[in-house]
Each structure stands twice: as C-alpha cells, then as structure tokens.
Amino acid sequence: MQTNRYNNTLRKALLVDIEAGRELMIQIGLEEGVASENTIVISQFIDQLLNRLEKVTETN
C-alpha cells in the first residue's frame, strides 16, 4: 500500500514537471526556434521525465 501511495505522488509530480517543461519548450522554441540547442535540451529532459512516468505507471 505504501508503495502505491508513493507511486501516485511521484506520478502527479512527474505530470506537473512534464507540463511545465512543455510550456517552457514552447516558449523557447518560439523565441529561439525549434532546432535551437536549448529547445532540444528541454525536449530531451521531457523525454526522460516521460520515461520515468512510464516506469512508475507500469509498477502500479
């Protein structure tokens, strides 16, 4: 039970971080272009968060 509660909390936190990252990526993409280094770095970070979210979701 405790693991399930932890996973739910972690899942919610990851979703918040993913959404914040998406908003930042859109803003930077509009300012610097979608192929800028900063946009790509943020995109890669979002990918890592999505991978963690998938792992957490699988364990539920």
Radius of gyration: 14 Å
Main sheet attributes: strand count, strand direction, barrel closure? none
How many distinct helices? 2
What's the order of the H and E elements?
Answer: HH
Number of DSSP strands?
A: 0
The low-pLDDT segments are none
Structural class label: mainly alpha
What form results from the Cα inertia axes? elongated
Mean pLDDT: 94
Q: Hey, roughly how much beta strand do the residues contain?
A: under 5%
Helix content: over 70%
Tell me the distance between the termini.
Answer: 10 Å
Helices and strands in order:
Layout: H1 2-32, H2 37-59
Helix pairs in contact: 1-2
List keywords for this structure.
mainly alpha, 60 residues
Overview of the structural elements:
The chain is mainly alpha-helical and 60 residues long. The protein is 90% helix and 0% strand. The protein contains two helices and no strands. The chain has helices at residues 2-32, 37-59. Helix 1 packs antiparallel against helix 2. The longest helix is centred in the N-terminal third of the chain and has 31 residues, at 2-32. It is elongated, with a radius of gyration of 14 Å. The mean pLDDT is 94.
Could you write a compact summary of the structure shown?
With 60 residues, the protein is mainly α. It is built from 2 helices and no strands.
